[in-house]
Specification:
The chain is α+β, with helices and mostly antiparallel strands and 386 residues long. It folds into 3 domains: 109 residues, Orthogonal Bundle (Butyryl-Coa Dehydrogenase, subunit A, domain 1), CATH 1.10.540.10; 99 residues, Butyryl-CoA Dehydrogenase, subunit A, domain 2 (Beta Barrel), CATH 2.40.110; 146 residues, Butyryl-CoA Dehydrogenase, subunit A, domain 3 (Up-down Bundle), CATH 1.20.140.10. The protein has 10 helices and 8 strands.
Length: 386
């Protein structure tokens, strides 16, 4: 058993870590609090080629393995979790196009998506449907050589920049089972009826916009049907969401790492009753627990990434996402406790980490729903423990 990164992965992580330390950490707290969009950081991500993480090399991408993909999200989230979000849905949608798109769709979109000249997102969540993807109500009716889309999407990351935005909709609302009537349509910016209504104000996850999107009689040419075949939308989306859970697990590790780092450093300089607080057993126990859970979460995240590279891994990615996201929340709370009153101040990083951590237990499927996914995989024999 080898728990080490390859030399290439170690070098890649070093480049990312230097970028985060130099370009993200010094400005994250100020830009997050002011609501400033991280334009310069986004350009840095493009310069590193990270918009092409899941784009095949023949279309100009990096075509990263799943473990290197996870490294990106851990390192970026250590600096500012919101920045990782800009790449998150973009990378999943690029993977959908690369895996399921027609050759014409790949040639049209992937080269510019790989450089960041184009960006994309994932038009999935709706006001009444999120983790229950089959509950979407957005419809696409075929009229001649065009689909006419009507519906509303919520919480869409990169909505103001996505071009195209893959929109999951029902091309056959009467299909039984429901997933057989779901398809993905690639909607380009500027299409009449496609409107980003507002940015949703959030507790955390600042940096990228999360928007409400209205699709009012949006006409999309039939050649923008992903893969050219109706009824494959559920399968196409789920194939990307496995990588999405690796993304969230790795982000969780990054947040937990930063929360631990902040707690450890603060415990060395803060004194109480004439001695550093890290000499008190109560603080020692918190630091030891945080470090233990952090390392366990990291091992699970990269185990899940390795599992994804070998085939279907809904149980592994579900387990990793559940455990790592809850470890991140616990680390943020314990780090705040170590900071005491200062942890409640916006002058310290832990306040931001505390607000960012809960998203990971919600994104890419809530943890409670994912527990049922894991259980079904175990009962069916698709997955096992031990």
């Amino acid at each position: 058993m080898d728990f080490e990164f390859t030399q290439e992965q170690q070098d890649f992580r070093r480049v990312l870590r230097n970028f985060v330390d130099r370009e993200i950490i010094p400005v994250a707290r100020e830009w997050e609090q002011s609501g400033r969009y991280p334009t310069e950081i986004v350009q840095g991500l493009a310069d590193l080629g990270l918009f092409g993480m899941t784009v095949p090399e023949e279309y100009g991408g990096l075509d990263l393995d799943a473990v290197s993909f996870a490294i990106v999200f851990e390192e970026l989230s250590r600096g500012w979790m919101g920045i990782a979000g800009i790449l998150g849905s973009h990378s999943l949608s690029c993977r959908m196009v690369a895996m399921h798109g027609t050759e014409a769709q790949k040639k049209r979109y992937l080269p510019e998506l790989a450089t960041g000249e184009r960006r994309t997102g994932l038009g999935l969540t709706e006001p009444g449907a999120g983790t229950d993807m089959q509950g979407i109500r957005t419809t696409a009716r075929l009229e001649g050589d065009e689909y006419v889309i009507n519906g509303t999407k919520m919480w869409i990351t990169n909505a103001r920049f996505a071009n195209p935005l893959p929109v999951i909709c029902k091309t056959d609302p009467t299909a039984d089972p429901r997933h057989k009537g779901m398809s993905v349509l690639l909607v380009e910016q500027g299409t009449p009826g496609f409107e980003v209504l507002k940015d949703i104000d959030k507790l955390g996850y600042k940096g990228p916009e999360s928007c409400e999107v209205l699709l009012d009689n949006v006409r999309v040419p039939v050649e923008n049907l992903l893969g050219g075949v109706e009824g494959s939308g559920m399968k196409q989306t789920l194939s990307a969401l496995e990588w999405g859970r690796v993304n969230i697990a790795a982000r969780s590790v990054g947040v937990a790492q930063r929360a631990f780092d902040e707690a450890l450093e603060y415990s060395k300089v803060r004194e109480a009753f004439g001695q550093p607080i890290n000499e008190f057993q109560a603080i020692e126990l918190k630091l030891a627990t945080m470090a233990t859970n952090l390392q366990a979460a990291r091992l699970m995240a990269y185990w899940a990434a390795d599992s994804v590279s070998k085939g279907r891994a809904d149980a592994a990615t579900g387990m990793a996402k559940i455990f790592a996201s809850e470890a991140a929340m616990e680390a943020a709370v314990d780090s705040m406790k170590v900071h005491g009153g200062y942890g409640f101040s916006k002058e310290y990083e832990i306040e931001r980490l505390y607000r960012d951590a809960p998203l990971m237990s919600i994104g890419e499927g809530t943890n409670d729903v994912l527990r049922t996914v894991v259980a079904k995989a175990l009962v069916s024999g698709r997955a096992s423990v031990g």
